[in-house]
Amino acid sequence: MTNLFLNNANYNILIVGIAVGSILLLGFTIYFNNRESVTNRAFFYYCLAVALWGISNFFEYQFTENTIALWALRTHLFISVWYSLTFFRLCYVFPNNQFKFPKWYKYYVIPFIVITSLVTLTPLVFIRLAHLATVGQVTRAEIGPGMALFGLAAFGLLIAGLIVLSVRAMKVKGIERKQLWLVFWGMLLTACLTLVFNLVLPVGFQNVTYIPFAALFVLPFVFLVSYTIYRHKLFDIKIMAIAFVAFVLTIFSLSNVIYATGPSQIVLNTSFFLLVLLGSIILIQSILREIKQRERLEILTGQLEEANENLTELIKQRESLVHLITHKVKGSFTRSKYIFAGLLDGTFGEISADVKKYAEQGLESDNAGINTVDLVLNVANMQKGVVKYDMKKMDFKDIVLSSLSEKEVAITKKGLQLEKDIKDGDFSIMGDTFWLKEAVNNLIENSIKYTKQGKIIVGLEKNNDKIKLSVKDTGIGITEEDKKNLFTEGGRGKDSVKVNVDSTGYGLYTVKLIAEAHKGRVWAESAGPDKGSAFYLELPATQ
């Protein structure tokens, strides 16, 4: 390696490494922060191009072998073309998150750059070496006609980028204008430094001291972009802190190059530096991903809290509306009930048989309406947890038998048969007598309403520590689709209203709430439509 390089000073590599490392870390950090942003992507491409350009510029005049030196010059021009394109691209899109490039960019600029970059690798730009540099000199090559094409592409894009950025800065106002001007002055300063140290001093004054450090000339732009990001909060300062820590670790690894005593150690320490740089980039990516996940979680949590507050408010409004409507309706039923009751007990004098018949029907209808209103109110109170259950030890068998004795008349009146399958044994449970009887009544009434002919079988048995009530019928049955809605609020079967016009869908839902309050469960089984149904209420037994 020593026969290829004119000057391989460790400090030179350290300086270039600092510049390249900081540029790459900033580029990757901004890119990983928001890959969807066209500005972030453009800045990332620019940082990659700058890093390659700085490295190629460092080695451009270091080689002492003719062929390698010539190709080093050509490669540097090749990279310079693409560097200019990324410079222009960044100026053109900054600071937009979404941007669609015009057709002229896709169909004219890109093909022009591709052709120009390929031309730089041919003798059309550098024909042959005219002078191979020694220490303190500049390697010169014989220039071909293609150099004009290179100058048009490279310097044209740089100037066009600065013009676009300055024009846009003058048109906008507020914070965006400050962002644009900061980026503009950073780019202008970088361009001026590059021009002075890479062209004016070497060509005009034969001073090549600063040529290897071209990457340093981009640092003013990098610092101004970093300040813009911090000052105008283009993304979280925590991310910048992570990038800074990664940068310090990377430079610390590169500092080992200073203490290298030979080419092999330089190669080894430089390789270690590249590995640390890669590790730092991966670290930044993983931490950024974690930060974004945490931010998304915080946003989601906030949305859930807001949705919960809105839902709580809607529930309160719904409850108020339910209570208002049900009390109004119940009041109407109660008033008409008193009128029908007065007709039947003679308060309004003697009435005919026909009027008496209609009064009885009206009274029965009002009682059913009042029961429905009470049912809806009970459900609302159960959902809120307002209902207080008076849990005491009792015999569940007594509740079932009491309910059957009350419902037997309705069953017989409808022409149905009642079968009892009550097993012997201890059916003691802890529960509220009133609400458990309400649950049993609902299940039996449900079978009465939806059974046109046949029979109802009420069973009670105890299996280990569970007591199970069953109410089976030969009624209309249940479809698989209806099973999903049976025990939900307002849930009814598809054809239930055809059989029972007074169906509200709250009866079985009430049974479910009561069962759950007693640490039990309720479910239904059916072979299908017109094949009857079986409802089960299972409760924990007690000693």
How would you characterize this protein structure?
This protein has 543 residues and is of the alpha+beta class. The protein has three domains: 10-235, Rhopdopsin 7-helix transmembrane proteins (Up-down Bundle), CATH 1.20.1070; 305-384; 392-540, Heat Shock Protein 90 (2-Layer Sandwich), CATH 3.30.565.10. 64% of the residues lie in helices and 10% in strands. The chain contains 15 helices and nine strands. The protein has helices spanning 10-33, 38-59, 66-93, 103-119, 147-171, 175-205, 219-231, 237-254, 263-345, 353-384, 396-413, 433-449, 480-483, 496-499, 507-517; strands spanning 126-131, 140-143, 392-395, 417-422, 428-431, 455-463, 466-473, 521-525, 533-540. It has a five-stranded mixed β-sheet with strand order 4-6-7-9-8, with helices on one face. Strands 1-2 form a two-stranded antiparallel ribbon. A hairpin with an 8-residue loop joins strand 1 (126-131) and strand 2. The protein starts with 9 loop residues before the first helix and ends with a strand. Mean pLDDT is 76; it is low at 1-9.
